[in-house]
Every structure is written in C-alpha cells, then in structure tokens.
Amino acid sequence: MGLLGFHTMKIKEEELLAGDHIYTDRNQHTYYHHGIFIGDDRVIHFTKVSSDYPAVPEEKCDHHSNTTRDTESGVRMSCVLKCFLQPGHSLYRFVYDEGLLAIVRSTRSARHCTRVESVLRRANEELEEDTFGGSSLILKNCETFAYFCKTGVKFHLSKQVLRSLGFLVLAAAIMV
C-alpha cells in the first residue's frame, strides 16, 4: 500500500474498459494523476503543464492533443502507455458504488456513476470545448475532472487533497 493508501485496484492495460476512471502514481507516490479511459489506448484527463506532463511530451504519440492551447492547464487527450502512464508506474481503477467503509479506507466513492455513454460524452465535450476551467488544487484538478465525467457532479472535493490537508493538520497539531 502506498503513502496515501490508493493501491487497492491495480489493473493491467488489457483490463481497461471504456469509461473507466483510471489513475496512476506520480512523484514517488506523493500524488496520483486521474483520467477517463475512452478506448483505443486513449485517456482524457485534466492536467497542468509541468515537468511530469510537459506541453509536448518527449516521445509524442499520435493521440496527444491540445498542446497548442495558451492555458497552462486544461483537458487533454493522450495515449495511456506512452503519455499518461509513465514508465515503471502502475495503473489503477477508481471503483464507484461501494459502501461508506470503503470510502474511508480507499479511493472509492459512494456516488453512483452514470452510464458509460454519458461518461464518454462528458469527457469528449470537455476535451472539445475546454470549459472545465483553470486548475485549482482543491476544487479543479484531474481527480475532480474524472469524478465529474463519471457522475455529472462538478463540485467534488478531491480525496487525495483532503487526505493531504488532514496530514498537515495532524502534523501541525503534533508540533504545537
């Protein structure tokens, strides 16, 4: 189990299903990058241009899109293996429709997700229109984008951000 307890739904590429909310670890498991798998080795995800995800990847795949946008963040489409999933990292599925205990213990959500067609439509609309907005650590990030695509709910507090804030509060309380 990793630092934030996210490693309960590890999957292989051949297990991916269109509409899956997927994620992968980044920066030695300090955070996770989320997206929606749309099939044919493609994932739509919300990202901020960084060293982990440059505007133009070193080895550009033919699925990589929207690299010419002026904004530093936004909805992008890329391939799963060369761009989204970095070499040596694992792939995970975010599982929905489970009980409250599962939410507290892992990355699962109690909200029911919508049909695959709706998930794919939302992800593709956001890719085409880029209306999800700018990046915000707590309210607008890759996890909240994938959650929106799966549930239709735009306001969602990122579980990994809430965990991190909880760790900070605990650390501050210990230091006092």
From TrEMBL:
Gene3D superfamilies to which the protein is assigned, alphabetical: endopeptidase domain like (from Nostoc punctiforme)
Superkingdom: Eukaryota
Short name of one Pfam family: LRAT
Coiled coil start-end: none
Residues in LRAT domain copies: 23-158
InterPro entries: LRAT_dom
Protein name according to UniProt: LRAT domain-containing protein
